[in-house]
Amino acid sequence: MRIEELETPAVVVDLDVMERNLHRAGDYIRQHHLQLRPHTKTHKIPAIARMQIEAGAYGVTVAKVGEAEVMAEGGLENILLAYPVFGEGKWDRLAAIARKRSLTVAVDSAATAEGLSASLRRAGAEAGVLVEFDAGMHRCGVQTAEEAAALAVQVDRAPGLRFAGIMFYPGHIWSRPEEQAPALAGVGEQIREIVSAVRAQGLDCAVVSGGSTPTLYQSHQVPGLTEIRPGTYVFNDRNEWGGGFCSLEDCALRVLVTVVSNAVPERAIVDGGSKTFSGDAWISGDRKGYGYIVERPEASLEALTEEHGHLRFPAGAAKPRVGERLSIIPNHVCACVNMHDEIFYHRGGVVEGSWKVAGRGRVR
Amino acid sequence: MRIEELETPAVVVDLDVMERNLHRAGDYIRQHHLQLRPHTKTHKIPAIARMQIEAGAYGVTVAKVGEAEVMAEGGLENILLAYPVFGEGKWDRLAAIARKRSLTVAVDSAATAEGLSASLRRAGAEAGVLVEFDAGMHRCGVQTAEEAAALAVQVDRAPGLRFAGIMFYPGHIWSRPEEQAPALAGVGEQIREIVSAVRAQGLDCAVVSGGSTPTLYQSHQVPGLTEIRPGTYVFNDRNEWGGGFCSLEDCALRVLVTVVSNAVPERAIVDGGSKTFSGDAWISGDRKGYGYIVERPEASLEALTEEHGHLRFPAGAAKPRVGERLSIIPNHVCACVNMHDEIFYHRGGVVEGSWKVAGRGRVR
């Protein structure tokens, strides 16, 4: 079957492009002696995670306990839950994973460390812990080197926990690659201070984990960094393209849609809306539009309602007929994949199969 | 079990509030001799659809073929697919539904009517058809009374299709209830012209279907209207509240979350982000914030990343501790429910069970 025969909307991944993305990252980390622990929130599919491992990744990153379970069941090792977890049921589930897999968990408060410790102790299990610091995104993370060192000491003393290092997420760095150096140098200075404060407490800081897709290929500019956790790089999207972090040819995932109405002047409607693409904005561009329309770059996917994608055509341009199919690169591929239970993969347009988005809906 | 014991994030529905919403709508349509065919895209759960029927609804509305299948399997009758459908596989699936259930489908082009007709004919089945007209939203729908009448004639002649009437979606009317009269009168004038043009072709126009939640209780102001299709009214949300279409006490659905980090000054992070709430804006308000925080109305859920909800507190306000639980009314409840595989229901805080969101992910 060819992708043109799939019912729409359908999410399709070009395996050749995806594999090129994986190998490019693999080559980069080998060249710069970095570890790669890709964030699987982008796809939530163990089969893709295993392909990332084959291409050089050391382990996988997840955001939810349920996603960690899916990856553990899928045979993945060296799982990092890069999220502060609170709740006895969740800590117990993490302890169950830690009995079977190498598990590392991020914390930025004593409360989450203590709870996890209690569950691990009861289960007779151990997990690594990374102390998260705020590298400038102002989301999570301790604020000073002193706080980081104090929490590291607390972790080190807690039964079941093994202090493994520090982590941050540079989600605020979206400047173009050639302009990232000052921000990355600032993060490097933070790392130097925190590692120094941690070592002053007699602790080793083996892991310094950071990295996003926008900063992926500039990671070697961050002194002290040992590991990166990009997610989006596996597929890329319109936001990565708009920011200059990939080319259109590097975008491995498209949403196939069909024009279902063209009754309104200068408009056409396709059979995918915010419940197909997600409503995420084009944050690396002019914030207009919800995707790049491969066959009709002159048109704009200017609005989304739940199941309607609203295409706008320039005055005088030929509108598509009802039934015409289009391929759209979404603004934010992680949010788009999360709308779907199943995505298809192909080579050269020939469908080779589909993956279940196994971690989708595992919100707890 | 009480809702306070559920792991978070958890979507919970207060049955008492929901039933009040359903009965209020039921009383209204009986008083004004309107039919109610609620749009089930809000919940996608057959059990709730059956409660809507018990409260006076005549049938159900859906947006996707897959949602129609879920409602048909769930025992619902009088199913309206208020969406133009294109694709042979989908038309065949609709024909299969039409053999077992009373099915009506919306069209606004000859192409979708012809395709559906061919499949129904092959299956030896029949479906009602509503011709959609554009009431001012400029999304789908024929533009003139002449186009509507011409399409009605075409439908009437097509094997398997039974012309049943006309429909529109007043999704552009978000003015406060007391200010809607001019817009509704304009729609009434459109209806008068179209019904007249259709009748001039010798056709009856039994159904005139419209209605949204913002216009629900003003529907009697639209001359000629026979049926309404509100969706959100079952739960309500921050957008309905902001527009003056319901009170906070009418909001039946909340998302329970837990504070997982408060390391950053004036901020706290809860364990739900755009993959829990959806990123839909507060379109009936100042477009700021992603939900109403019941226990902390002075705080703002000012930003969402995928799994992090970013709370902002006024300077000097006490921040919640890590582990504190909050209840949040989402901006757009239809988009929020669509993120979840399961939602819980309760009375007075006592969990009575959960529903599978059976139609979620049925994107085709």
Would you write up a description of this structure?
Two copies of one chain form a homodimer. Chain A has 364 residues and is an alpha/beta fold. Chain A has two domains: 3-9 and 240-356, Beta Barrel (Lyase, Ornithine Decarboxylase, Chain A, domain 1); 16-234, TIM Barrel (Alpha-Beta Barrel). Helices cover 30% and strands 22% of the residues of chain A. Chain A has ten helices and 17 strands. Chain A has helices spanning 15-32, 46-54, 65-73, 88-98, 110-123, 145-157, 181-200, 238-242, 274-277, 333-337; strands spanning 10-14, 35-36, 60-62, 79-81, 103-107, 127-132, 161-167, 207-210, 227-228, 253-261, 267-270, 291-293, 300-304, 309-312, 325-330, 342-347, 350-356. In chain A, strands 1, 10, 11, 12, 13, 14, 15, 16 and 17 form a nine-stranded mixed β-sheet that branches. In chain A, helix 6 (145-157) crosses helix 7 (181-200). The two termini of chain A are 37 Å apart. The model of chain A has no long low-confidence stretch (mean pLDDT 97). Chains A and B meet through strand 10 and helix 9 of A and strand 10 and helix 9 of B.
